[in-house]
Amino acid sequence: MTVGVREQPRGADSPRPRPGARPGLVGWLTGLAVLAGVGYRLWLLLHAAPPTNSDEATMGLAALHIARGEGFPVWFYGQQYMGTLEAYLAAPVFALAGGPSLLGLRLPTLALYALFLLLAWRLTLRLTGDRWFGLLMVTLLALGSDRIVKNQLIAGGGYPEMNAVGAALALLAVDLATGRPGRRSADAERPGGRTADAARPGRRLARWGAWGFLAGLMLWVDPLVLPYVAATGAVLVVFCRRELWGAAGALLGAAAVLGAAPLLLHSLLTGRNPLHAVLAASGANTSAGWPDRLHGGLVLGPGLGMGFCAPGQCATWQLWWALALPLLLAIGAATAWRALRVPHPAGPAAVGPDAVSPRVAAAARLALVLAAVATLGAYTVSSSAGLTPVESSRYLSCLLISLPALLWPVWTVARHGLRPSALGRRGVGSTLARSVAVVLLAATLGTAAHATWRAAETVPATQAAEARHIELVGTLRQLGVRHVRAGYWTCNRLTFASAEQVVCAVVDDTLRPGFDRYPAYRREVDSAAAPAWVAPAGSPLAEVLDERQRVAPGSLDLVTIEGWRIYLPR
Q1: Are 144 and 153 in contact (CB under 8 A)?
Q2: Confidence of residue 201 (pLDDT cuts 50, 70, 90)
Q3: What stretch of H or E contains 564?
Q4: pLDDT exceeds cutoff 50 at 486
Q5: pLDDT at 417
Q6: Per 3-state DSSP, what percentage of the chain is helix, strand, and coil (rounded to 5)?
Q7: Which secondary structure element, helix H or strand E, spans residue 568, and what is its range?
Q8: Are 507 and 489 in contact, with CB atoms under 8 Å apart?
Q9: What is the predicted pLDDT for the residue at 5?
Q10: Mean pLDDT of 546-551
């Protein structure tokens, strides 16, 4: 497949800056876009958005236990997979603040988002050398639909870290494959060539160690980013395989073991294989029809997971991205492969300090495209895509790392049209292609902006719900309630919000014991004299408890506040 995108003479196939373009202007605009993205998310956090839940509270409780020195969990409570890195990041915040809070739990995730934004911008410049395209990427990533901000800000395990680490792995791979900035040797252009930086060997070895440590760390934290680990690792193997046989490879391996140490030590001590738990959680033990999987994975999933849909749903017109994504993947792979196969002269190949050698840039773009294909394919074949596509679309959050590789051919056509050889002549065809590319870029920004606006509209309702929960915690304290029984989505959230002053055990809608992620809470509640019951107003649990009151009048005293019902045993 050959796509006639105009080739440019400078490095990484990037166009020369337009006459009159001022780097200072694009730099200021990029800085404003970064501030807007971080500021929007900080505004969400200050208004208790996106809404929290008991899973995030479970991570908060782990952070609280770490801050107090009461425990150092390896895995998310109640399971044998998904590392607790977010808890370890939040624990110092809790210690400095003197106690837990939702804002304190999420400040590290906000920092991870800011880091991802900066790394994605830097990666875009390294791959393309085009600062205006970098501005486009930062602007797009500054927007945030409901699903996107949930992935980036909720400390529920894994998702806030993955994009930052994936972008860092790609950037480190590009720098290592190219060699020292400002001194590119002929070997850096040849697959397998030695690219060691003789002038700064320590800095280069540090990059090898950083790549290995981050790769190992994500094995512990969340395996969803493994396609990007494998793809960027392949770039290193192709361009630096001789170096990998020496000290660099040994350091990379040692650093990877260090990053994955919590997983490895726990597996050795317990004899448990975390892969089995991951497969069970992905739906490997359940079944879903292929029509449902294909619809969830290829139609609903891309729009939801990449930030083009309203909260919890995709309107028909927003599904256009599901049609565009396969084309972008194909075009991105074809143009990167073609650029990789075209001979390039050795030596400095880029004008300015940003872009890298054409071969390395093309290989990295191809790697990002293939990682996106692997991520999308793995999600589509899983049962989660067919059973719970709206919620499980979060598994596609890593696709944001590949956006520069997906949109770069479109940007190039929008600015310069098609190569003459693609159509045999310039004219109407090239103009039409440029128009289509401009419309596609505008639609991408416009759809993401609309989804961001719809997400912002939900903030007042989220803030009101959080205020009602704060009132619930205060009422329980006033009543002197120390132990309660409640549903899963109430329990750990209540325990975290009260800093364990109220301890909760999970029950199902028939009042039987439910799934307690932290068994010590159940033991404490079971040993209490008369635990109370808490249920959201109008919930099935509330209906069962109301029926108990009708059957045995006087057995429970009812206290109601807006949105909640508290049942006190006599």
Answers
A1: no
A2: confident
A3: strand 564-569
A4: yes
A5: 77
A6: 65, 5, 25
A7: strand 564-569
A8: no
A9: 46
A10: 89
- How would DSSP label each residue in 227-256? HHHHHHHHHHHHHHHHHHTTHHHHHHHHHH
- Encoded tokens for 354: 């940003």
- Give the number of other CB atoms < 10 A from CB of residue 111: 14
Cα–Cα distance measured from residue 558 to residue 414, given in angstroms and rounded to the nearest whole number: 65
Planar angle of CA 297, 299, 300, nearest 5 degrees: 80
Q: For residue 106, which of 46, 35, 40, 166 has the smallest C-alpha distance?
A: 46
Chain centroid, CA 549 distance in Å = 46
Measured from the Cβ of residue 358, the count of other Cβ atoms closer than 10 Å reads 25
- Of the candidate ranges 279-293, 370-384, 436-450, 521-535, the one whose mean pLDDT is the lowest: 279-293
The pTM for the full model equals 0.89
Q: Where are the alpha helices (DSSP H) in 98-130?
A: 102-128
Q: Contact at 8 Å (CB) between 175 and 360?
A: no
- Tell me how far apart the alpha carbons of residues 221 and 84 are, in angstroms, rounded to a whole number: 7
pLDDT band at 157 (very low <50, low <70, confident <90, very high): confident
Where residue 533 falls (left for φ over 0; alpha for ψ -120 to 50; beta otherwise) is beta
Residue 452: C-alpha distances to residues 38, 53, 311, 317, 499 (Å): 14, 21, 9, 16, 33
Q: By C-alpha distance, which of 437, 431, 417 is closest to 328?
A: 437
DSSP 501-522: SSEEEEB-TTSSB---SSHHHH
